[in-house]
Write a structure and sequence with these properties.
Length: about 375
């Protein structure tokens, strides 16, 4: 049974409304705004009948407060008043009311209006739920597609596959810290999208020949030039996708990251030698994440450094990596959140150890 909150100070009008609605709805009555707020603390009605001319805080002020709260803004409100001027009705509707009933009440009109707006509210809720469900389905499809591309990369380079998933988590941590402390550089709304798009940063490596991608040793200058093209190849793949199916925020961010995650703040990066603020914040974040994960991971040409050693190399340099290659605020955010990086790394190391033990038992 739907619940109705009647906010009315006239005993006569309260009796009329109760007579019209009792037996059909669960009724709650408040004679002023303060008592109405007390009712709302214990229950959320399905609809409110609100007297516009309440003593103390009037109905218009009360409705403004309802509209400002996420918990109550969805409740349909029908204004009731003995003032039948059009200007008052317009004021009530502009304030967020769904309808306006003038006094003296006609019980049949009250019944019909309440029934109509409860039905409309129910349909609205069902529609919103369907929209939310469809949105979740679309997001799931998008996420599944991103992970499928990640597995494609893993099929050619086993180290890249795990690197993709760790990159997402490291990126989320670093981007969240930047959004919290430097919202002028990155909004909190962008963080989940950026972390999702970061999974695609190395998809261009599928175009790199196996002999180079999995080479057990340093690359020659010629091979290195081919390897560097994975940034351009990845960006071109994203660009082609956008041309075929249309652009969206995820693909735009993925394009940005693919092309810029090897650029360096001091201008010594590739493929375009961008410098300073020329580098998108998304690329600057993934650039540091990429270096960190490369340091703490086993590669054909090197062993894995510890978390502590990786932090030292990033913050102090080692001849190959220098702190000047990173955006200063991104670097500071990494320093502030490095223990979260350590926790993620430990989780993946434990998972790898468990998989190794399981594989040895099977053999």
């Amino acid at each position: 049974m739907n619940s109705v909150l009647i906010i009315e100070d006239s005993p006569f009008d309260i009796d009329l409304l109760v007579a019209a609605l009792e037996g059909t709805y669960n009724l709650h009555v408040a004679i002023d705004a303060d008592k109405a707020f007390g009712v709302l603390e214990s229950m959320i009605p399905d609809i409110i009948l609100l007297d516009a001319m309440l003593p103390g805080m009037d109905g218009f002020e009360f409705l403004q407060i309802l509209q400002s709260s996420e918990q109550t803004r969805h409740i349909p409100v029908i204004f009731t008043s003995g003032m039948d001027q059009v200007s008052d009705q317009i004021k009530g509707l502009n304030s967020g009311a769904v309808d306006y009933i003038t006094k003296p009440f006609h019980t049949d009109i009250v019944k019909k209006r309440v029934s109509l707006h409860l039905e409309l509210s129910t349909h609205k809720k069902h529609l919103e739920e369907r929209i939310h469900q469809r949105t979740r389905e679309i997001e799931h499809t998008r996420d599944s597609t991103v992970q499928a591309v990640a597995y494609l990369a893993e099929s050619r380079d086993k180290t890249t596959g795990e690197h993709i998933f760790k990159t997402q988590q490291y990126t989320y941590v670093l981007a969240s810290h930047i959004a919290q402390h430097h919202p002028h550089l990155l909004s909190s709304d962008e963080v989940p999208l950026l972390a999702q798009a970061a999974a695609l940063h190395d998809i261009g490596k599928v175009s790199v020949p196996d002999a180079i991608l999995t080479k057990n040793g340093p690359l020659t200058p010629e091979e290195w030039e081919i390897m560097k093209q994975h940034t351009v190849q990845g960006a071109e793949a994203i660009s082609t996708t956008m041309m075929m199916i249309g652009s969206n925020a995820l693909l735009e961010k993925a394009y940005e990251i693919c092309l810029s995650h090897h650029e360096k703040y001091d201008g010594t990066g590739y493929p375009n030698g961008l410098r300073g603020s020329e580098i998108p914040m998304s690329g600057a974040i993934v650039a540091l994440v990429d270096v960190y994960d490369a340091l703490v991971s086993v590669r054909p040409y090197k062993g894995a450094f510890s978390h502590e050693e990786a932090v030292r190399i990033i913050t102090q340099g080692d001849g190959r990596t220098s702190p000047g290659q990173f955006h200063p605020l991104v670097l500071q955010s990494f320093i502030d959140s490095e223990q979260e990086f350590a926790s993620i790394l430990k989780t993946f190391q434990i998972r790898t150890d468990q998989q190794t033990q399981t594989a040895s038992l099977i053999v």
